[in-house]
Structure of SDR family oxidoreductase:
Amino acid sequence: MDINNSVALVTGANRGLGRAFAQRLLERGARKVYATARRPETVDLAGVDVLPLDITDPASVKAAAEAAPDVSLLINNAGISTGTDLVTGSLDAVRHELETNMFGHLGMIREFAPALARNDGGAIVNVLSAMSWFGGKGAYAYHLTKAAAWAMTNGVRLELAEQGTLVTAVHLGLADTDMAAGWPVAKLAPSDLADAALDGVEAGSAEVLADQWSRDVKSRLPLAPEEFNAAMGRALAALTAA
């Protein structure tokens, strides 16, 4: 699809990657951009149509779909990381991450799929992570949720193919956002991530590996688990030592 003249809705558009998506959509000629956030008063980008949205609240998701029936491009960006491990961490925190990072995205897709079908199929972008494929101390819950979201994305892509909806999975390592503020390493600019994702949509791509880190991680997936874990340990050590 063509970004120019599209009607897009971006979740979590008040900061970070979501704000960058909304801004680049406007700059690339989108006819309308719905910028959504749990606290809509925090959206500070001129030229967007602001909507309140909590992706973990089905009533809020339904209200957003009713307010934006003309959407042709859905950007599922909103997400959280609670810094929780699976065995020793809070199970409530694990569930909260799953409700946001996987079920929240799925709920948006289910609610907006009819509108996309009416608008020539359109497209969905699910912002995932290189951590769809690996975890680390303090982030195993995040890994779980992104792995689940990856599987969900692959499933809905096949289910929505009949109505002509493109579903693009976007994976990245670290972007220069609040979530990655504690990592003193080189990070992807949010605008570059947005452009890579939107270029992928225009090219009809099912998957976008937005940086070298995500490409390197995926290339290791054929390894045996022990080899994969050892390779990722070395890669993480090199990253933090750089």
Remarks:
- The first strand starts at residue 7 and ends at 10.
- The longest helix spans residues 91-118.
